[in-house]
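Customer escalation, tier 2.

The customer says the design service returned an amino acid string that "doesn't look like it belongs to this structure." They asked us to rerun it and document both sides in this ticket. The original structure tokens are below, unchanged.
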């Protein structure tokens, strides 16, 4: 976690310095780039501070140890079905929906309906068939 803290804090400092330089180069007349870079820097530092506070509370993590094994991070990553086709249907629903937003609103409802079908399918895939619990 130490590397992540350093990464976010240093990136935040970099973006804030670049925001000031950008402001001076544009004479603070262009009011999109300067605030955007400034906010990216502030948000990056906010994430770094959050990670630092979390690191102080949690203590030493396996990713901070050079000699750590993969099995040391024994957290439960969740249950995933490698045979499931529903994530592909969810991705297709998202693609159709975003395509509808970009190209024509009449396409969006088709993606929304496909998304509802995909979410119901992925939610209930373990309740029926050969893989029911």
């Amino acid at each position: 976690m130490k590397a992540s803290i350093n990464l976010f804090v240093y990136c935040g400092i970099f973006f804030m310095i670049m925001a000031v330089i950008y402001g001076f180069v544009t004479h603070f007349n262009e009011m999109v780039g300067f605030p955007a870079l400034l906010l990216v820097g502030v948000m990056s530092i906010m994430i770094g501070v959050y990670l630092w506070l979390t690191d102080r509370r949690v203590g030493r993590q396996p990713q901070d140890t050079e000699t750590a094994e993969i099995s040391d991070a024994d957290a439960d990553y969740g249950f995933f079905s490698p045979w499931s086709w529903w994530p592909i249907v969810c991705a297709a629903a998202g693609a159709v929906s975003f395509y509808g937003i970009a190209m024509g609103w009449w396409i969006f409802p088709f993606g929304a309906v496909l998304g509802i079908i995909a979410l119901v399918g992925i939610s209930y895939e373990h309740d029926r068939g050969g893989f029911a619990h």
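Tier 2 assessment: The sequence is consistent with the input. The radius of gyration is 23 Å. The mean pLDDT is 89. Sent an explanation to the customer and offered a walkthrough call.
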